[in-house]
Amino acid sequence: xxxxxxxxxxxxxxxxxxxxxxxxxxxxxxxxxxxxxxxxxxxxxxxxxxxxxxxxxxxxxxxxxxxxxxxxxxxxxxxxxxxxxxxxxxxxxxxxxxxxxxxxxxxxxxxxxxxxxxxxxxxxxxxxxxxxxxxxxxxxxxxxxxxxxxxxxxxxxxxxxxxxxxxxxxx
Length: 171
Description:
- The chain is an alpha+beta fold.
- 18% of the residues lie in helices and 35% in strands.
- Strands 1, 2, 3, 4 and 9 form a 5-stranded antiparallel sheet that branches. Strands 5-8-7-6 form a 4-stranded antiparallel sheet.
- Strand 1 (6-16) and strand 2 form a beta hairpin.
- The longest helix is centred in the C-terminal third of the chain and has 22 residues, at 147-168.
């Protein structure tokens, strides 16, 4: 069993309950996960503490333990005057949205739902909000690290997630 100063490298595939693949992280560099850092859903973190290098598992993660429920209040309408060329907003695609600077210091991923002459509608829910998922996970490496090394791995994980969000949004 690993300690909290441990990390594992994993390949993984995220699927919806119907088997649709949402994310396939097998053909790229393995993801380094600092254990106990809450950088992955709790069920996956718990499994990674126990798994041996080379071991594979499927782990079901309910929506409420991952990206939470789909929230209607996270669908907002915004005046078209807040963006240049609102007619160019990609309906059905994701954009990075900052919103009100006082409330939102970091941009968030938002799906463009619709655009008309007066407003556009954004869905700020994560694409997996309200959806139960199944992760296929394979541990391909392990190690121990100092706090600085764990922090560096967390920063790397955040960078990879940001890159994934950007690539999925088409930017």
